[in-house]
# Entry
Amino acid sequence: MFRSIAFINVPSFPFTVERAVSRRLRGRPLILARSAHPRSRCLSVSQEAQGHGIRRGMSIADARRRCRDVETLHPDPPLYQRASSALLRIVGEYSPLIEPLGFGRGFIDLTGTERLFGDADAVVGLLRQRLIRELRLPAEAGIAVNKLVSRVAAFDAAPEGLLLVERGGEEPFLEPHRVSVLPAADRDVRTKLTELNITVVQQIKEIELDLLLYALGPAAFSLSRQARGIDPEPVIPPSAPPRIALTEELSEDTNNRDQITGLVKRMVIEGSFRLHRQGKSAGEAIMNILYSDGQTERGSIRSRGATASTAVWIGKTRELLAGLIKRRVRIRRVELTFSRLTAASRQLGLWESGSKTGQEAVSPEKSCRLDRVMGAMERIQSRFGARALSFGVAA
Amino acid sequence: MFVHLNTHSHYSLGWGTTSPEAICRAAARMGCRSLALTDTNNLYGLMFFLDYARGFGLRPIIGADVGLPGCRATLLVKNRVGYSNLCRIITALHINEDFDLHDMLPERNEGLVILTDNAGLLRLLQRRTSSLYAELVAGQPVRQLLKLASQTGIKPVATARAFWVEEADYHLHRLLRAISLNTTLDRLDRSELAPPHACLADEDAMREMFNFCPEAVDNTVDAAAECDWTPDFGIVYPEVEAGANGRAIDLLRKKAYSGARRRYGTINDDVRDRLEHELSLIDDKGYAPVFLVVEDIVGQSPRTCGRGSAAASIVSYCLGITHVDPIRHKLFFERFINSARVDPPDIDVDFAWDERDDVLDYVFGKYGVDRSAMVANHVSFQKRAAIRETAKVYGLPDAEISAVTGRIGHGFSFIGLPVEEHPALRDHGFPDPWPEILQWADRLVDIPRHVSVHCGGVVITPGPTTDWVPTEVAPKGVRIIQWEKDQTEDSGLVKIDLLGNRSIAVIRDTIAAVKENYGVELDYASLNPLDDPDTQALLARGDTMGVFYVESPATRLLQKKAGVGDYEHLVLHSSIIRPAANPYINDYLRRLKGEPYEPLHPLIGGILDDNYGIMVYQEDVTRVAMELAGFSLADAEELRKIISKKHKHRRLMDLRQRFFAGAGQRGADEEQINRVWDMIMSFAGYSFCKPHSASYALVSFKSAFLRAHYPAEFMAAVISNQGGFYSTFAYISEARRMKLRALPPDINESEIRYVGRDDWIRVGFMQIKGLSRGAMEGIVARRDRPYSSFDDCLRRVELSPSDAKLLVKAGCFDRVEGNTALSIPPLTANAKSKHHHRTRPQLLWRLALSADRSGSDTQGDLFSESPPSIPNPPEYSEATILKLEIETLGFLISRHPLELYRDRIDEKRVVQAVDLPGHVGEKVEFIGWLVTGKVVTTKDREAMEFTTFEDTSGLIETVFFPDAFKRFSHILSYTRPYRLFGRVEEDFGAVTVTVERAAYL
# Structure
């Protein structure tokens, strides 16, 4: 059986959703930024704002200088999540195999659904109509036998909004496209191809794989395959990752270590709260730091045994943070992920003291007391929110 | 009574916040009578300190806070021996990796008062010196130290170990520490900071702090009383060998007469009288060793330019130190040496920039590294660096910092505006934390941040240099003394400036190319084209881009306005062009064109007649001060010297008062005196003496001659030697305007440097960004016959893949591979391709295959002429080729960048540069590419800019007056064309445009 894959994309998803909610925003130049601070950066820029020369990554101050009327929106992940879930719910009525790619876009495997719903293009057409009617979200879509071609087709779909690449037509469809549409053409590969004056997919096809290997190394294999429209990648439905991830974007970037330590401490408390609520313990904390200049730093630290103890993770993350911050540049965002999750056990180790089970430097009595405190905190937090009550932060 | 014995100025780099002047002022205000300056491991500010301390009525005590972490001592100088010991200890600390005070002080404590809080040192030294004190530092634990002092009988002494004067300066101290340690304010550890109260406290505060041990405060007076010596070295001459029983002056006389015979043929009375007069003064002053040393150094190179006031000396001329005949050109020896002169003579010699280091090696080899060293340069924070460093401490990313510092330019301090008000930043917001950053950056300005090497100053001492001054090794590996040029001079050390000069190398290279190309022999020393009509005409037209010293837009414009190109006027122009003399230049031009004028004052009479009644040269200041205000020669010379020295401001104000009083007594009215004084003050910043200008003008003439007669060779040498006033792109454009073809790099035709001949110049391999030196040398060395193809080159030269790729991308193989993308015909027949046309992408394919297979078994057929099935991609698009030119060369070589905008330019009715003279008085629009710009301030301290644009027909000199500068300076850059609207003006025949509006094309 031949596969039938569709790629659905709601362009400028955050703005489309915001405009679906608020008519006032339609046609206005918009930018998305974490805070209204003049140094805060544009995370996303609407087409109208782009017309004024505003680009992603610019500061709000710069954006306002270019367009006084530009409106700043702050990201509303719960809203986007709701909109994306609603979109997936509708899409899910037509196929059980859906692979979301962030908010507002994803692959749908329609293979074998013809008898139920008709041809793939009819299904996708219907889907698009329902998305507009029910969610006010206009979507573009591409249909082909694989993910690669359907995705390229979706971006080619304007103005009709839907493009079907017939089976067997993948190669000629891709030929005139620029090499950058191929996922295997990463930055290094693109640089080499540009030097060799290979700019469109068709040129790659014309070169023998052996020669391509000399020029590009192992990347040639996938590049050559993709240039012929071959992409065996299946549509993979999302699986819930066994981890708890927290992200904090600072309203104003800072390089004040106390401020960052305090922020991480609060994140640990929140993470610990979620761990307790899910009855889990974490064996590892992974921290990602984004500096103002876009550079990132990543590190991880493990505990000796899985634990949800706030005290343990505060100590561990402080150690991790100290090793991670080496530059003077300000920090814009901190991501903290608790991974290696296991079911929490309240039972103390039979032979080991607390220090060997991850409860370093915490006596059994103190641990029990802490647990009781945590239990009380959880009850309050469950009712009033994770930040309603937290540990104080001492410098 | 109490004396501060441990005080640090901003010369304690990265720690101290306050200048010696501010410290002395504060100490005097507190009622101190003596003060020790004890910077950390250095005497960087010693001469300034002595000067200011005396100025504020303080008795200066010389010292230093010496040591490494864990063991330090405050060493104060009692006498000459102690001073030498201190210099040697500091030098050892900087030079010996295993330096330890425990080893040094037992040997070198004579003449020193030693204060230390180190128990080990106190025990070690207690029986070796009586001038030993236990140093109780304010804010540090003292219990153990006091106990030790009472056990051993060593007297305690209290110090503030002050690093600042005002308590509020603590934050500045933290900022300096954070910059020094490359960290942020909140990450500074307490051990990396001075205590918060390391402040210059008054006596009451000190007594309060040390109320548990009042004798420690009293003992400061005893310690200070031991230190009653300050240096007075006189003039420190180098030592020369004058032969058995010979005197230096005798040897000098012999050499001078021998040189005179060589220079003049026969020695007439004028020459003899001048020689005898000078030799007699030189003998009186004891300067002979200096002449002999310089003559010896100059002998190491056939191409030099002796300059400075020494060029007024016939002895210098006869010794070959200078090359301008002082008799013929009326240069007065007294500017160089006179009976009133108390400071050392000033002899500067320029060498070709790439030969200078060899000369320095000779000096250090001959006189010994212990007796010779280079002068230091104290590098202070300037506005840009201060903003950048502060912003880094505050954690701002590079791009955000550069968006500010890149706009304000290096000369920003000169404008004197707050950064927020700089017109070039009018669209730039300054959100938090910028206001705080800018505030603190202002405080950093002028604080020294590191020490480097002066561009050419060398001192040679008769004994070990460390008898006079500590030395250290600069990062570039050269031994330097700890003083910069002003303090060197104040100390009496004779500074000989041996400077690198790019134009001498340009002349050398042009002469060599002329010989190679046409067989014409020119000699640097005898090339004296002062009367050459073509050279004079070129100078009179101001066609002087690339010509030494007269290529800046301002000088070119002056040349054009003056319309004269003779040597005497060129000498005058070289001096009058200084920044503060603008108002007088117009007076000069009017008078040159025949306008009558009166002398500045009848008392001044005709002494300025040669300069059209205007003070042009430094010696004019001396002469006018003597004639108008009745100054003695010594005072007038002092006035001349201190005009531009910031640290002598107080003395300058004294002299001003005397000048006004003196001139008033001689009948001058206030308006006249003010006018003359303003003219004198126009010599602040920089100015020159006539002998200096005369020396430089001779080099200008030599290089103008070469530009006039051998333009291709000359322009190739100008670009090859780099460092000119303009960018390479601007010189290439100028070459095109000179009707020279600019040819791209070529594997068979290019040399490492640019080459020129007849009507072309060829880009050298040096221009290809990132190409290794080894590749350049390999290509040239193995080119015994032309390379027949890319493969042939790869076979014969060991090129790395990245070098080979750069050569391909730069188009070096275009012609040998028959690629006519650039449509430039080959210069020589043997460069013609015998192969099928191969494009650059094809060559890169070839390279990719060969690079990948070079390590494999198939190496045997690696360079076969027809490797199997290489893909055949098309040649790059025109846009890509232009992009590659910029990527590999840094600019477009195949065409002027404005050609890329030809369609849009042709759509508009714009005036070309060459046609501007026909539009004088009219408002015009032209399209230009920015070449260079200079921001200056008006009398009202408003910023404005003189800019030079070019189009394909010529250069356009423009002015952005303050209004236009405010509105448009923020859009100007060197990377795109502009539409400019303005009025065409003509001034003394030179055409300029006063810009009223500017816009992107």
About this structure: Residues 44 and 53 of chain A are 13 Å apart (CA to CA). The first strand of chain A starts at residue 5 and ends at 9.
